[in-house]
Amino acid sequence: MMRNLLKVVVAVVALSALDSSAWAAPSFKAGESYNVLTALHVVRKNEVYWVNYTRGEQKIPAGAKVTVDSIDNKRVDFTWMGKVYRFDYKNNDAGAPVDEMLAKFFSKEDPTPKIKAMSEKAQAQISRGAAEGGMTKWQVLYSIGVPAYAGQSKTFNLRLKDVMDADQWIYHYNKFNRFTIRFVNGKVQSRTE
What we know:
The chain is 27% helix and 30% strand. The protein is of the alpha+beta class. It has one domain (33-192). The strands form 2 sheets. An 8-stranded mixed β-sheet has the order 4-2-3-7-6-5-1-8, with no helix packed on it. Strands 10-9-11-12-13 form a 5-stranded antiparallel β-sheet.
């Protein structure tokens, strides 16, 4: 009996170690290339904000290859397709460390193979920037990006794990209009304007 209990405890500890390492952030450095992990929306020609206004002028899709030109504790300048973009990802010095903040948006791992392994319907939804019933949290992140709020918390100081743990995400079209996505069992249940 004790031997079986010990095996269970060891298995739980091993699984929890794997889970926490899956959320480990890479060390971001200027001059290195990364993949856009979650869709980013561009406003005013080359500006991207942590709020991720979904009615931006252009969407930089998940999987896009970028090069980080410069980085500090609030802003990253990166190049995509020959154009430099300024990404303001924090609005104060509180919250998670820089690497954990940026891990919501950029990754060394390319998400494209995961997206291509999804159903044709899910790929089409992601391609057109949808957030529809039945989509998973990851599909929504690939499709429209990180929300402005996860639960009741602004996401500028949340880690990706914190965002994924919330079952209500609020997005802003612009400064004045927003919509809410509610998840049940990790899938979109409703979207309200």
